[in-house]
From TrEMBL:
UniProt key word Magnesium: no
Membrane topology annotation: Multi-pass membrane protein
Transmembrane annotation, as ranges: 113-133, 145-169, 189-208, 214-231
Domain Major facilitator superfamily (MFS) profile: 1-235
Entry-linked Pfam families: Sugar_tr
The protein's name: Major facilitator superfamily (MFS) profile domain-containing protein
One GO cellular component, as annotated: membrane
Length: 306
């Protein structure tokens, strides 16, 4: 955006149908500039610093969140559904289930969906282990029906709780200044553990058979308390609120407790609550004044110091 202020103003004018001299446009431009400057402050080195806002703690949550998605065992199903008809049905059902969170994520929240998904996937994997045992050890072909059903059940729980969540949560839990490098690092976890699962699953099936599903059932069971005790809710939270929560946190165990006690500044419609409105308006008026001074300074070619 450097040196392209006029273009930015033209776009803001067009989008908001207001003059560039309008206080709203000036404030919006200032907010964008502040955001860009804030994002430029981050670096990969800053991801590993544990300062007052506990950046490393939050980066670890983002990384583990992506890791959990892959070690849940989803690729055990999607990569090794070798029959074309089953693969087609599996993919179609997976796609349909993926739409469900779009309608409930803001009502239910991030944590409940992750907990719901982990619990459901754990149960599904346990059932798959049992049906696989009946098929391979007891030679009971009737178990094949249950196995087919719970492959789709597992897919549904995964789609609701973990498919899109691992791309949303890491972006919400970290400060703006380290969002880009955090997303890059956490995405690497997704592919690293994807590779690990895909490469180890055939070997596991060949050597331990149905017990492979038992391992993934245990992993999903382990994910449940991890989410419950360590992952704060980000629904209806601004970045400033999350900064305040982690600033009060003293260790990895109390962030969730603090987030529960911390009052919400915004309602379910994203509107600032009345008790916080006066303070926000005071800050906004200062920002508008600075933006106006900066804008006039840019027009006259003089440097304005606020």
């Amino acid at each position: 955006m450097k040196g392209r202020t006029d273009e930015a103003l033209e776009i803001l004018e067009y989008l908001n149908e207001k003059s560039r001299n309008d206080p709203y446009i000036k404030n919006e431009l200032l907010s964008i500039e502040k955001t860009v400057k804030e994002m430029n402050k981050g670096s990969y080195r800053s991801l590993f610093k544990m300062n007052e806002h506990r950046e490393f703690h939050r980066v670890a949550l983002a990384y583990v969140n992506q890791m959990f998605q892959q070690i849940s065992g989803i690729n055990l199903i999607t990569y090794y559904s070798t029959r074309p008809l089953h693969s087609a049905c599996n993919g179609t059902e997976h796609l349909m289930a993926a739409f469900i969170p779009n309608f409930i994520i803001e009502k239910a929240g991030r944590r409940p969906l992750m907990l719901f998904g982990a619990a459901g996937m754990s149960i599904s994997m346990a059932v798959l282990a049992g049906t696989n045992y009946c098929l391979t050890v007891l030679n009971d072909s009737r178990a094949g029906i249950g196995q087919a059903v719970f492959l789709f059940v597992f897919n549904t729980f995964f789609a609701i709780g973990w498919l899109g969540m691992t791309w949303l949560y890491p972006a919400e839990i970290v400060p703006l200044r380290i969002r880009a490098p955090t997303n890059a690092l956490s995405t690497s976890a997704n592919w690293i553990f994807n590779f690990m699962v895909v490469m180890s699953t055939p070997v596991a099936f060949q050597n331990i058979g149905y017990k492979t599903s038992v391992i993934f059932a245990v992993i999903n069971t382990f994910m449940f308390p991890c989410v419950y005790f360590f992952f704060p809710e980000t629904r209806y939270r601004s970045l400033e609120e999350l900064d305040a929560i982690f600033k009060k946190s003293t260790n990895v165990f109390n962030a969730v407790t603090i987030s529960v006690k911390e009052p919400y500044r915004y309602d379910k419609h994203g509107e600032l609550k009345p008790e916080y409105l006066e303070e926000a308006m005071r800050h906004a008026s200062v920002d508008v004044h600075i933006a106006g001074a900066k804008f006039e300074g840019d027009k006259s070619g003089n440097e304005v110091k606020a």
